[in-house]
Amino acid sequence: MKLEDLRKIREKAEKELKLREGKARVKIVVGMGTSGIAAGAREVLKAFIDEIEKRNLQDVIVTQSGEKGLSSHEPIAEVWEEGKPVVVYGNLTPDIARRIVAEHIVNGNPVTEYVIEVKEA
Amino acid sequence: MPKRLDILVCSGAACISNDSTTIKNKLQAVLKEHNLEDEVAIVETGCMGPCELGPVMLVYPDGVFYIRLKEGDVEEIVKEHVIKGRPVKRLQWTTPEARKIVEEKKQIPFFEKQLKIVLSNCGKIDPENIEEYIAVGGYEALAKVLTEMTPEQVIDEMIKSGLRGRGGAGFPTGLKWKATREAPGDEKFVVCNGDEGDPGAFMDRAILEGDPHSVIEGMAIAAYAIGAKQGYVYVRAEYPLAIKRLEKAIQQARKYGLLGNNIFETSFSFDIEIRIGAGAFVCGEETALIASIEGKRGQPRPKPPFPAQKGLWGKPTLINNVETFANVRHIILNGSSWFASIGTENSKGTKVFALSGKVNNTGLVEVPMGVTIRELVFDIGGGIPNGKKFKAVQIGGPSGGCVPAEYLDTPIDYESLKKLGTIMGSGGVIVLDEDTCMVNLAKFFLDFTVDESCGQCVPCRIGLKHLYDILDRITKGKGKMEDLETLEKLGEEIKRTSLCGLGQSAPNPVLSTLRYFRDEYIEHIRDKKCRAGVCQFEEAKEEEVSLEKKLKGII
Amino acid sequence: MTREEILNKYGKSKDNLLYILHDIQDNNPQHYLTDEDLKAVAKWLNLPYSYVHGVATFYSMFSLKPRGRYIIRVCESPTCHLMGSSDVIIELAKTLGVGIGETTKDGLFTLELTSCIGVCGVAPAMMINEEVFGNLTPERVRQIIEEKRRESK
To answer: Which SUPFAM superfamilies does this one have (chain A) (predicted)?
Structure first.
């Protein structure tokens, strides 16, 4: 690969990472490090995907990341939305994941009892 | 960067019908007018509770709850509270119910005091997608090094940065690179030590699982600097996910031409293979690790010669820890002076710690060197759960010692910790409360090192077992006062004469607890008392014996 | 995969020994290395049998005795111990009816203790084969064993 190729990939990938040029309005990033998985993150990830499919939400994507860092509050997921601060949820279960899709993603009301951090994008 | 103030504006259905959107918009406008946008964050939340008192606003970190707001109140709140720091009393709600809501909505300060450099991508990017790594600047450092710097310049930067090995020993990384480069020989190797076995440590696992490319890039830069073409990452077999993600990352890097021949169309070629362990803590020791990669029993050998001169298959080998390699690209991109501006005089940069044990917030924390133990345990860790009292932290795992409450304000850096009789170690920090018996804890660490001893040298193989037996007797109420002197003398002797780092540091938990909690030892021996209530002396039934007896009773 | 296929996959290089032993062991439903395995590996790599035996017995993850289909490894290191691993170990022994290092009569589970597995933030923890389970309580442990029993059918 040439240096210019690296730059081109970076430009394209940066846009996709930012949602703006990507097709998504909302991105949910589920922490899938071993601590998260040991605490049940796989089932939470599945629940998000299931619920989004059930509701046919075309503009919401679900991805994974490594350890979020706060093991005591795993499973953890972040909700990224264009123009809004990032909402970080902790202590998730599959049921709460479904609530987040219904209340936060669809209706715009974060499920505050499970919010552990709100930060800049 | 976290903002100075967070203002939570309720956007629940009831508040919206009470015109909270107007309040929010007005707040935005007034903040802009006073140039406060960078200092104050407006956070929209769902229903906060007392709908009949809306619209409401919560100001953090002050914890002030404003109710029944009108558009005209916003200007006053900004002028008096935000700018002058004087909450507007007439609009404030201060009943117990209000305080409860304020407490609930308080954000966990876990993330705020951290400075994420090594962990900047963990939890952010998808580690199985190389393009996300590239999107955040991945492989730019390697490109810079290959097209703009000579190997000597790279080594110079590493030395100037002051980076010290993050695996535990804290040896200056730049000097290690220099020594390996200068060692005679045409074939050299770069090895990444991913055999993180310290109880309480899981930093390296997180980096390998969450940002494997940062390690690959660091290794490639090191290989260029020392003149190596082949690298190995030794990962313990207990980390199957890390192995899987790293394998995928290596394959993707090869596919994109970032590993292999003529990287970035230069004459530099480098490739990496994974080697796995099989359940031996001692393989974290450099020479044992080399033996393991060579397909042998993981038994250390005496140093010198050091791996820099004679390592893998007798060739000069650079061995660095996962976290050390993960720092490299940041030093290259931001410069050695930037890195050296973080931390303390003798400990530059940040350190990733793994907080566990009796603490509210467990997990991975990355802070600049020099943060105090108190900040780590109480501000970031959130303090001790269930209203219990802090007793000590165990830092450095089985090679380290404990630090009691009187030293909570010690800054965390290599030299300060050494003065207290412990070591930085790989970064495991276990928090202990009043229910922990320090004698029992020392015994547990000894149990670990006795089990993991490779058995080669007498001081470790026999000496540690003897130390363990004495501790065992003490926890069962059969100790003698002479035991204290024996423990100290034997411990020092083992440290002095063991062949490798495992034996040389294994007595530390004992010596350290003896230094700071001698009273507990004396109580166990003289009074047959365990103040934490862990060791049981009646009928010599002690926790581990009762575990075995219980197990025997079941089957 | 047969043993021969595994050996062929890695070639005759001594530094592949740990990989070879891992693969052969994982390939055996009883998760252990037989004497024939060790002899075959020694022959393949042109090493003394005692050498291969020495390596296999040095590393704690290899077993020369037959084990169950699911190898349960409970962490017994200090942090998990502080957070209650003893209760978890006793519950497992009770539920499975075996002691440490033993295999259930139906050949499904082997109960072992292991050193730190690196998930101390969710202690107490254990691994079953390659899966990691954290935040364990006696009740959660019973649930997990039930799930595994169902999965095995």
So the answer is: Thioredoxin-like (SSF52833)
Q: Highest-confidence range of B39-43, B114-118, C61-65, by mean pLDDT? A: C61-65
**Number of domains comprising chain B:** 4
Claim to verify: residue B139 and residue B82 sit in the same structural domain? no
User: For the segment B117-135, what is each residue's pLDDT rounded down to a tens digit?
Assistant: 999 999 888 999 999 999 9
Instruction: Give the integer Cα–Cα distance in Å for B74 and B69.
Output: 8
Q: Strand, helix or coil at B151?
A: helix
B315 contacts in chain C (CB < 8 Å): none
C-beta atoms of C121 and B202 within 8 A:
yes
B280 and B147 share one domain: yes
Quick one: B314 and B365 in the same domain? Answer: no
Sheet architecture: strand order including A86-89: A60-65, A26-31, A77-81, A86-89, A115-119
Shared-domain flag, residues B386 and B501: no
Q: Are B285 and B234 in contact (CB under 8 A)?
A: no
- Contact residues, chain A, for B265 at CB < 8 Å: 2
Residue B63: which CATH number? 3.40.30.10
Task: Residue C127: list chain B partners with CB under 8 A.
Answer: 238
Chain B: residue whose CA lies nearest to C52:
B296
C116 reaches A (C-beta below 8 A):
no
Domains plus CATH for chain A?
A: 3-119 (3.40.30.10)
What integer pLDDT is reported at residue A117 of this predicted model?
84
B286 lies in which domain range?
A: 130-340
| Residues of chain A in Cβ contact (below 8 Å) with chain C | 34-35, 37-39, 71-72, 74
Query: The tokens of B249 are what?
Result: 């990352």
Q: In which band, very low, low, confident or very high, does the pLDDT at B50 lie, cut at 50, 70 and 90?
A: low
Residue A102 in contact with partner chain B when CB distance is under 8 A: no
Chains that touch A (3 or more CB pairs under 8 A): B, C
Q: Are the C-beta atoms of residues A3 and B143 closer than 8 Å to each other?
A: yes
**Burial state string for C51-71 with b = 16 or more CB within 10 A and e = fewer than 16:** bbbebbebbbbbbeeebbbbb
Question: Which pLDDT score is estimated for A112?
Answer: 84
Residues 35-74 (B) with a CB less than 8 A from some CB of C = none
pLDDT given for residue A97 in this prediction: 97
Is the CB of residue B553 less than 8 Å away from at least one CB of chain C? no
Give the mean model confidence (pLDDT) for residues B331-341. Answer: 96
Whether the model clears a pTM of 0.95, i.e. scores above it, the answer is: no
